[in-house]
């Protein structure tokens, strides 16, 4: 059973991404020109997507992979192009419908199952690997560890995810975000220390048999994100 704080934040995120921000996120997934700030975010997300993909084999034939918090489905598409069978889960039904259209247009719909729901649900089955790009950055550190542990419970090989690293710029952005009217705010991110997160993961008994691995920071204008991986030891 997910912790109450995780469930509460999950509800906030669902409202935001399905009602408030869905059109903006569709633009990120298109070739439509963006303003200067949003263009840096798109470029940063492209780099982080490539970073996570680099942590997986080029040939993923026979792999079943969960794209946890799939959004518009870009990462799911790339995984399917490498031969994986992909399950893409997102809180937003509207984003899932958009991702399904993207898969149809790319001729990859037969290799990807998109669904709206909780990315941590055991009902999705077992996977060889999990990717969670920028889908855990809104949760407290203890909820992130619990999420990784739950994902590990039905994952055979590795989990690749991202954090919002604790930096002065992100701290300033976090403060500025709180100045907007409540109805216009995105749910705040939860900056985390890479070293402390690695320590938490390595000490958690639910992750016995797993170890932390490679980490890369991507910084592109207003996009700052840190990849992490845990693998079976």
Give, in order, the helices and strands: HHHEHEHEEHEHHEEE
Any idea how many domains?
1
* CATH-defined superfamily: Vaccinia Virus protein VP39
Class, according to the CATH hierarchy? Alpha Beta
> How much is the radius of gyration in Å?
17 Å
Enter the CATH topology name. Answer: Rossmann fold
End-to-end span in angstroms?
26 Å
What is the residue-mean pLDDT, rounded to a whole number?
88
Enumerate the spans where pLDDT stays under 50 for 5 or more consecutive residues.
Answer: 178-185
Strand content: 15-25%
The major pleated sheet works out as: 8 strands, mixed
Overview of the molecule:
This protein has helices at residues 4-20, 22-29, 36-54, 74-81, 93-106, 141-152, 168-177, 194-203; strands spanning 64-68, 85-90, 112-116, 127-132, 155-163, 210-212, 216-220, 223-232. With 233 residues, the protein is of the alpha/beta class. The chain has one domain: 3-Layer(aba) Sandwich (Rossmann fold). Strands 1, 2, 3, 4, 5, 6, 7 and 8 form an eight-stranded mixed beta sheet that branches. The chain is globular, with a radius of gyration of 17 Å.
Short description, anyone?
The chain has 233 residues and is of the alpha/beta class. It is built from 8 helices and 8 strands; from the N terminus they run αααβαβαββαβααβββ.
